[in-house]
Structure prediction request, 141 residues.
Amino acid sequence: MDIPRPLSSFPLALTLFDAAVCAGFPSPAADFAQQRINLNDYLLLNEQASFMFRVSGDSMCGIGIYSGDILIVDRSIVSAHNHIVLAIVDEEFTVKRLFRRGAVLKLLPENPAFSAIEFKEGQELRIWGVVTFNLHRLLNV
Prediction:
């Protein structure tokens, strides 16, 4: 297993247009005011505790996390029921939805073709961090 390293802290600024983009019918009255934003400020909730991981596999495609996507994972967030987490199960990283209710603890895929990971005695689960963003490329170049 590779050891993750924190993200670098240099600012990356892009222009944010202050106009909502309609995913349905286009809006003819869009106001195009703009500002520069630092992507680190937008994407990193806690810069020192943020890491990126590339996804491999299809177990989370039901919520829009696809193989090849890059996840931003924050280690400072305490995981809770229903969070998307980066977990280590038997020394392997996996991304799943955390199910924690009473004594029941399991990791749920978001693809019906995959089974939940339920833990047996002696099996180890470590929650490595909580997924805060998914960077999904739309253009294949």
